[in-house]
């Protein structure tokens, strides 16, 4: 059970959060301008590194805010987090 | 039967039954010690081979003595408190659940502390005392009923008093401190991320809750979990009467029980000599000490020590009667004995440390694995890290406790004074012998509970397995209660022997929670039955109950399914309800539909991005049906949107998807479109909604709402009006999910029952449930998201191209409709199916094939049935199905394989009733 530092509520049990996958995968500016391959990359391709990974979390059972955090997938240590403005 | 209790041992008598026979033990006994005291040697038959088995150990590492009692299917006799009237039976073969329901209460506790100490032996007590002295909040958890760890087993003295007394006093002092919590009979069984540990506290049948699960978040952890004595694999090492030497010492010192009359001790190290001394003092005759080393330990005067010897055979089928020993250059000797005590050295108990993510390191001195580096905030102290002297454990524990408290931010405090202990003899180095070599390994057991032998392990390595993880799964060694306690390192060593690899290179299998078995009922706690999940009911619920409606679970909601009249079964009731709606008027409780209030200056823009169709052009006072997709173009939810004001909408969702849709809206607003000024609020439970449907619904509404102009011109389809219905403030929406003229009347949830009773009070309205609603909507080909769709279905697949805007530059999912995949001609389309036999009801989920005889497998399947009902108005059964290229198959005959039968069906449009939509205006 990870202890996840919500930027708004402080450290809380993992069970209060919803995982949101890789961070910084922005919705494309103009999807119509993308090739099928580029669009498929947005839809289906995500990184799966061993080590530092920027990912999204939502404090669903708390403040319900989304935020980003950098977690080391090998150790589960959360090294940094950022508010989504 | 002879008593094997030491003369003069005091104790309050306790009567108990075992396998139908009556016995007497004393308070403080475990079932195992009481059985040994009564001379019971054989307590089990091994599960695979049916070999007789005796008590082998004295605590949680016991592999043989499993019993059933009460609701417990597989308890270890060695950890089971002897209580008056205990009635236990030995487990012969596999465990099986009690037929009786478990009526005990189980609870959960969440706790936080600065330092959690696991284990109340010398190291754990010293750690807790040192940490508590700094003012840190300390929890000390110990799985035994009495404190002291191994001290009551070894009868050593601490601070000039017997060790168990010192431990009890120290623990009582700790318990008296305001910031210390003592958890006895509490096994910490799991160590998870960020110092989250889970323990089970066994409080007993008389306590308010029989067991409690503790979920503890600790700043720092000290593991003082001790060590397990190692078995040795030799021929016949499973006979009743073979016992770990330290366990026999524990029975003598802790319980005053002699596990045999005449013992041979087989050892690789000095600890068994101390056991032999204590047992001899208690009255056991020590026939010989068989030491694998060339140098003897410190034996008592007069005890024969056979150095350089091993045990090569055990005589006696039902239990040890003799022990054969061999040594190089010596003639084999058969020694008469009824007890064979074994010590292969000690394995630090590293289970929790390993679960914490700690790396294990092979240690030459102990011949085992000890804690290495770890990233979590944890200290290991005492025997758990290979410190095997009493003085060493006290010092090590105190230092670990102080370091943990300091790391948690506590500095100054009362220093813990390490108590005096008697001088200990310097130990001779231990030998590391795992296996007595032989020509045949069929009775060299490595896991007694699983009946796994050295021969089985060699069969695994002979089959090419190299990893100890694979060998574990091939042989099952180290599974069940054992979890590597006795068999883990032994199995690795035997694999190493077979492959000629050093133990250090092989390592151990991964240690996983739970360290000891934990009941599902304990883990469930109060979260069972009605408390397992919230149950949501509408404000009309009591009426549905009173009218005998069975309920359907939709998410957490209880929805009335149908309203049977006397003598009606479900089929008859649903056909009657359907007929009433199609020909007259019916009413349904639609309160469970999800409702989200969306407001703000950018609300219209927001909904345009979310729905596939245009919402910003909706006029105030009007209603539009909409579909939401995921970015991949697949349908996610559908419902209606009503415009309340320029900057305010009310969105409805499917009943089961309301929370997911709100999450979805918030996610896009927060992560992609934070500049949009939109606020979403769930208002599902603010409203009670009654759907009034059927050609007679206009007259019923007119009667209840005299102030409302209900004619089709004044109140057109897909508009809403605020008015009074039955004297209640109401919002009436003219929408239909049945194809009939219909209204949804929304009132404050508090007024829901009054509205419903007013509707029913007209005497002309038939209440209908969700089943009728499903039939009516399916006759019209309206899909239910999640039933007729499964996350692989686009609006076009549903025949709903019309709901996808061609004008909007973008919306979620739009780009995916231009992917090659979403326009494949063989995509599965929603179609209707009419069975050739109009009485034949197809099961939902049934597959469809193209031909009337099955070809050789694999048989290509064209799709499956998603909804299937009997229709009153069609006079036939019918189904909806997702079928590959379905829209190009109109009129084709397909087949549904059911058992040995191929049921013919005809493909039709998914809209089976009133395709021209003539009925919606009444
Ligand atoms: Zn929060």
TrEMBL record, chain A:
One of its GO terms (biological process) is tetrahydrofolate metabolic process. Gene3D superfamilies: Folate-binding superfamily (3.30.2270.10). One of its GO terms (molecular function) is sarcosine oxidase activity. Pfam families: SoxD. Coiled coil: none annotated. It comes from Planotetraspora kaengkrachanensis. This is Sarcosine oxidase subunit delta. InterPro entries: SoxD (IPR006279), SoxD_sf (IPR038561). It comes from the Bacteria.
From TrEMBL, chain B:
This is Sarcosine oxidase subunit alpha. It comes from the Bacteria. Keywords: Oxidoreductase. Residues 444-525 form the SoxA A3 domain. Residues 114-363 form the FAD/NAD(P)-binding domain. SUPFAM superfamilies: Aminomethyltransferase beta-barrel domain, FAD/NAD(P)-binding domain, Folate-binding domain. PANTHER family: AMINOMETHYLTRANSFERASE (PTHR43757), AMINOMETHYLTRANSFERASE, MITOCHONDRIAL (PTHR43757:SF2). It comes from Planotetraspora kaengkrachanensis. Signal peptide: none annotated. Residues 540-808 form the GCVT N-terminal domain. Belongs to the GcvT family. GO terms for molecular function: oxidoreductase activity. InterPro entries: 2Fe-2S-bd_N, FAD/NAD-bd_sf, FAD/NAD-binding_dom, GcvT/YgfZ/DmdA, GcvT/YgfZ_C, GcvT_C, GCVT_N, SoxA_A3. Residues 828-914 form the Aminomethyltransferase C-terminal domain.
